[in-house]
Amino acid sequence: MAQSRTVRTVTDTGTPEPVRPAPEDGSADADPGRGARACAPPGGTRPPVSWAGLRPLLLRLHFYAGVVIGPFLLVAAATGLMYTATPQIEAVVYRHELEVTPHGVPAPLSDQVAAARTAVPDGTLSSVTPAPGRTDSTRVVFERPGLPENTTQTAFVNPYTAEVLGQERTFAGWWLPVRAWVDGFHRHLNLGEPGRLYSELAASWLWVEVLGGLALWLTAPRSRGRVRRVFVPRGGPKGRRRTLSWHATAGVWAAVGLLGLSVTGMTWSVHAGASIDTIQSALAGPTPTVSTALPARAA
Predict the structure, then answer these.
(1) Domain 98-174 classified CATH 1.10.10?
(2) Dihedral, CA atoms, 286, 292, 298, 299, nearest 10 degrees?
(3) Which pLDDT tens digit goes with each residue over 27-75?
């Protein structure tokens, strides 16, 4: 017949607990809190959080932030590249309005403006840009009621015949519709306020994405060639490790540019940009302006 065993334990306060019989089958102690009390540090304090505990959280945050920011970066890169080519695109799309065949002597500028006024009778003359070259048209810009903010109506006039070649809505005094569309898509996906808020969210989280990725990559365990592996991608057969290496090293080389994109993008945003303006004003650092006042002549 098996003999029963008794177990006496000591509580956290140092006083012994009542004697209780141990399980006869030799299994673990029936007291569910005994193991926790045995493992708990003195005084009941929790151990400090280590990097090994934070790394999975940072990895998950890096992943989800990338899902949010990735489309914005793709659109910003594509539209930014397209924006650099807008002069060439406009030259093709608006060739009829922008280019003329030179012949004879240009008509007086007043005749060209009069022809533009006839084409836009309800407009208020804003500016006139004479043809800069022999094959260029004259631009006559009007402010017109009912147009959106920062939008004007521009008449393109043949400087030799004073004939109106066409009209287009222009933005910021000079941009034609193609450039304005590319610029809007670059800044807010042409979605208005929701797109602007998304762009600001992506720009605000971009620095978190970059710094988090650097922290994950720089602290990754490496056996040999530690410094070289930070900047040079892994070779060898294709696989997850090689893909991760290419992703991380590309991020290291692009980190400075991405951080600069985040900072400069936030200055142009709605909410963060307003906060930056407030800080700039508090530091007495507004944008300098040029004085247009002429000095008084000496008598």
Answers:
(1) no
(2) -130
(3) 444 444 444 444 444 444 554 557 777 888 899 999 998 998 888 888 8
Where along the chain do its domains lie? 53-94+176-272, 98-174
How are beta strands 20-21 and 124-129 bridged, if at all?
unpaired
Nearest alpha carbon to residue 147 among 179, 174, 123: 123
Coil, strand or helix at 74: helix
Q: Which residues pair with 166 in a beta bridge?
A: 156
pTM of the full structure: 0.63
Instruction: Compute the half-sphere exposure of residue 173: CA atoms within 13 Å on the CB side of its CA.
Output: 5
In 10 A of CB 140, how many CB atoms?
28
CB atoms within 10 A of CB 88: 9
Q: Which residues of 95-130 are buried (b: 16+ CB within 10 A; e: fewer)?
A: eebbebeeeeebbebeebbebbeebbeebeeeeeee
